[in-house]
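Exam revision sheet. Question 4 asks you to relate a sequence to its structure. Input first:
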Amino acid sequence: MKLHELKPAKGSTHSRRRIGRGPGSGLGGTSTRGHKGAKSRSGYKKKVGFEGGQMPLQRRVPKAGFKNINHKEYFAVNISTLQKLAEKKGLEKIGIQELIDAGLTNGKELVKILGNGELKATLTVEANAFSKKAEEAIKAAGGNITII
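Answer key, structure tokens:
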């Protein structure tokens, strides 16, 4: 390979029209921008959602719903999952740390225990919240609950 044989990799260069370089370029005069108006001026940037003065879609469509600022989002764990975890690792106490170790939660989320499934093991369970059904199932199996 010689120096005169070197060329850019395929797809790395783009053919680009050189605009605003006078009449000799074939694109001089108004430099492909047309006559007058905002789009012909330097520094023009179209605003996102601008529809030429027509009322934009995001302002035409009404606001919908209500967002409660006090709402808490919980990560749900069923008692069937607790049963599997207790059998697999031989646990008697399941808290947030055990759920993190099992890869069920990352520790930043609030955890709520739900009553789906069957619980046979006697467990002491620590979580941020419990459903009534889960609470009854844990106590019926001889376990205890602790709300953190």
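Marking note for examiners. The first strand starts at residue 74 and ends at 78.
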